Amino acid sequence: DIVMTQTPLSSPVTLGQPASISCTSSQSLAHSNGDTYLSWLQQRPGQPPRVLIYKISNRFSGVPDRFSGSGAGTDFTLKISRVEAEDVGVYYCMQTTHFPYTFGQGTKLEIK
Amino acid sequence: EVQLVQSGAEVKKPGESLKISCKGSGYSFTSDWIGWVRQLPGKGLEWMGHIYTGDSSTRYSPSFQGQVTISADKSISTAYVQWDSLKASDTAMYYCARLRNCGRDCYFDFWGQGTLVTVSS
Question: B113 to chain A: which residues are within 8 Å by CB?
Answer without folding.
Answer: 48
